[in-house]
Sequence to fold (231 residues):
Amino acid sequence: GAGVSQSPSNKVTEKGKDVELRCDPISGHTALYWYRQSLGQGLEFLIYFQGNSAPDKSGLPSDRFSAERTGGSVSTLTIQRTQQEDSAVYLCASSFLAGGNEQFFGPGTRLTVL
Amino acid sequence: AQKVTQAQTEISVVEKEDVTLDCVYETRDTTYYLFWYKQPPSGELVFLIRRNSFDEQNEISGRYSWNFQKSTSSFNFTITASQVVDSAVYFCALSEANAGNNRKLIWGLGTSLAVNP
Fold:
């Protein structure tokens, strides 16, 4: 079956603009995660969705970051008023239920803020 | 606090050599999961293995093997007879059962492995 897909694959934007990043998880996976991968910072957790439960937003770095997940499937990560330090690869992962199940990752969106 | 340390930033070997990637973790939980992921130059993270904290049995999958030792909080990864296609960044990660349903992964900084012909 299809894996996790993300769009766009690359996004270049100007400082101060808003961006939306999209994630399509694997069908049937109820858990969805967003991570950010920055040079020198490694991978860091941003936000987690599980079914219809309230998301865990504890990893979002500022209130400029938000995410939603519609219908328990597609998720959108929005960054408002982008800053240069937001430049990174944004990775989406999904897993079947939660537990200790392995997470399957999408190819990521490379965001460059000029 | 939870933490994953991969002390080796970069490793370079010649094809057919064996290579071990180290991973040391910290957690206060008694139930947790450990993972290895591979990130080839294409960038997509590929799942390799998951172990839970109650299963210390070593695992072998082809040329890959993993050594989990709770006594030293280590989960090391060995590639036997390395090949050029093994060149990638390898990440070790931890998730904790007491985190509730959010089994976010806590990542090491990765080890970049270069296998030269």
